[in-house]
Structure formats: structure tokens, C-alpha cells
Design goal:
116 residues, mainly alpha
């Protein structure tokens, strides 16, 4: 385990505002404060992860896609089948675009570049 090799501590003084900002940014990245600061010190940019609400929304969309696909399989004619499949594909495209936007966007963590 990596923690077993970490025998040294580093203490820094921060203002209450700085402490809150560091803790808030670590939470956004779902990291401990120690791991968050360690990554910054090693020139890694911690990435903000999607919120639980966003993950739940994407899961609900996935359920809607499944519903449309089931309806397409049980449709009585080809026109209905195409309609349900096109709905599923359109929602899948929106989900894919959303995930790409989330993964390519700059992290919102409040980190300054430079020698702070």
C-alpha cells in the first residue's frame, strides 16, 4: 500500500477561506484533502467528477433508452419500430455529447497556475 510509505507530514498555515476552498475543491474531485494537495504538488490537475445528481440523471436517461428499445422490439409495424429506435438513438446521442462535454471541459476546481 502506498500509504505505508508515507511517513512524513507537511503542515501549512492557511486562512479560513483558503481552507474552505481547498476542502470544497477536494470534495468536488472526491479526494481527501491530502490526496488533492498531493496531486497538485505533483503537477497533476485533479478533475472534478460529476455530481451524484448528474450520474442519476444519466442513469434515468439510460432507462428511457432501454424503454424505447423494448418498445421498438415489440412494435407491430416497421414505422413504429423506426420511430422508437430513432428516439433511443437521439437520446443516446445527447448522452454521449453530454459525457464528452463533461470529460473535455476544464476542471472547475479553483486552482491557480504558477508558483503560489
Amino acid at each position: 500500500m502506498a500509504n505505508r510509505k508515507r511517513n512524513f507530514g507537511i503542515n501549512i498555515r492557511v486562512t479560513p477561506e483558503e481552507k474552505e476552498k481547498i476542502e470544497r475543491n477536494a470534495r468536488k474531485c472526491r479526494l481527501s484533502v491530502s490526496e488533492y494537495l498531493r496531486q497538485i504538488a505533483m503537477k497533476k490537475q485533479p478533475k472534478e467528477l460529476p455530481s451524484e445528481e448528474m450520474i442519476q440523471s444519466l442513469m434515468r436517461l439510460r432507462n428511457v433508452i432501454s424503454h424505447f428499445e423494448q418498445r421498438a422490439r415489440s412494435a407491430s409495424d416497421e414505422e413504429q419500430r423506426r420511430f422508437f429506435m430513432s428516439c433511443a438513438e437521439y437520446i443516446r446521442m445527447i448522452m454521449t455529447d453530454t459525457l464528452q462535454l463533461m470529460s473535455h471541459s476544464k476542471p472547475k476546481a479553483e486552482v491557480k497556475n504558477g508558483n503560489d
